[in-house]
Amino acid sequence: MCRSRAGRARIVAPARANGAGKSTTVRMIAGVLRPQKGAIQFGRARRWPDRPATSSSVRGITLVPEGRLVLPADEVMENLQLGAHIKAAFAGRRAGRLRLLALFPRLFERRGQLAGSMSGGEQQMLAIARGLMAEPRLIILDEPSLGLMRSSPRKYSG
């Protein structure tokens, strides 16, 4: 059995060895993978093993997967817009983009640039900002510092 509880506005960082199942666990929480047995509980939603991953977004869960996965041939603003795929977030996508560009000033500087021409750290910022565009109650970052320079995670952690 695996239990984890995180309070409101909390950061939880599972620290386990490579191959211990961290990515598998977060993919199950996000609804990308189904648990073989048991269920995932988030808020009042008790079970959802048979629902598609898109319903996770509706419940307020967003996964920023390992490897950034930005659309390299699209501009920064187009990548951000993709994150506002939920009806409520879509309605406020302009305000959401402005808020995130203020949070990540480097993305503002690069707003018209193709995502594929940005550095790995800039692409990671874009991937995180795109996840935040959905205004999730829970955002899951899988390997957020993968491929970044050593100083980068400390620089952006506040």
For the record, the count of structural domains works out to: 1
Say how many strands there are.
2
* Largest sheet: spatial strand order: 1-2
The helix/strand order is HHEHHHHHEH
Gyration radius (Cα, Å) is 16 Å
Distance between the termini: 34 Å
What is the level 1 CATH name? Alpha Beta
Q: What sort of overall outline do the alpha carbons produce when their principal axes are compared?
A: globular
Strand percentage lies at: 5-15%
CATH architecture: 3-Layer(aba) Sandwich
Here the CATH topology equals Rossmann fold
Name the structural class. mainly alpha
> The biggest beta sheet, please?
2 strands, parallel
Q: Detail the poorly predicted runs.
A: none
CATH superfamily assignment? Answer: P-loop containing nucleotide triphosphate hydrolases
**Chain oligomer state:** single chain
Mean pLDDT: 76
Q: How much helix, percentage-wise, in residues?
A: 25-40%
Summary, kept brief:
This protein has 158 residues and is mainly alpha-helical. It is 39% helix and 5% strand.
Question: Could you walk me through the main structural features you see in this protein, from its secondary elements to its overall organization?
Answer:
This protein is mainly α and 158 residues long. The chain has one domain: Rossmann fold. It is built from 8 helices and 2 strands; from the N terminus they run H-H-E-H-H-H-H-H-E-H. The chain has helices spanning 22-30, 54-59, 76-82, 87-91, 93-103, 105-109, 120-132, 151-156, and strands at residues 61-64, 138-141. Strands 1-2 form a two-stranded parallel sheet. The protein is globular and about 45 Å long. The mean pLDDT is 76.
